[in-house]
Amino acid sequence: MDKGRLATNRWISLGRAGLDLYADPPGARVEDARAFSPALGGSAANIAVGIAMLGGSATLLTTLSDDAVGRFALCELKRYGVATEHVRFVGGDARTSLAVVATRNDDTQTVIYRNGAADFQLSPADVERVPFNRFGGLIVAGTSLACEPSRAAAFLSAERARKVATMIVFDVDYRAYSWPSRAVAAEICKRFSTLSDIVVGNEEEFALMAGERDGEALARAIAADVYAVVYKMGARGLRAFAGGRAIATGTHPVAAIKPTGAGDAFLAGFATGLALGLDLEDCLRRGAAAAAIVVTRVGCAPAMPDARELRALLEDQSLAPMI
Question: Pairing state of beta strands 87-90 and 97-101?
Fold first, then answer.
């Protein structure tokens, strides 16, 4: 990977964008909601927004349905400062993803509508049009690997990024509802990790790739062949494995109102830290701080912190110890 180009803080995020509807008032179950608030959603879109909010340059590579919901997502991306020249509208029966979400820490409800998802129509032809040598990093959300043609597009993006030394960050982002089986997900995600520079996942995702065995052992094994692996353990903290070292950090004690969006915010904070030239431990801390802010607010994209807010949390509050 080209660390000089990484320092430009220019990122391209591959994966889904969608419409999130949040049950109102916060704390209400979906079935008890009196209204719903719309927001941009989708892991790749959220990560791109998070990067833009933190001062980076973010481009989204995806496909949206050619309808009002797709146009809503496009308008929101532009409003947040995400570049959309590699977003394509698709017709037919494909539809932009919809999530109906409750802002609750306990009994968190998220209902996802992904049948015929428009983002799965991302094609190798879309990838061929991307000048990867203009970006310091490519972030691939694992949901894009769940079916064709987006699976082929994601693999091609990694191949083309590697040829020009663009850093590849793979967020496993396993969502069971998108995959035909856990076995297929494990095989495909593990194969994609071999093309990546950094692999990010939680305990369940690494256990999945390990065939339901020791996920941490697999994370350590993958780290022998890549730049770094980040192993997320929720409220218990984070571990990173790189260069034969294990680095651990805790989480920020905050009054969370929901868990959603934490992983996307972590990626944004972590990635922009890499671009700033921070060491791995400081990148982890930066990602943990971004995640801590997001879980205190309604939404995912709308909850992403800006650079001032992130700096304030990093300066004013110490991390809780690893559990």
Answer: unpaired
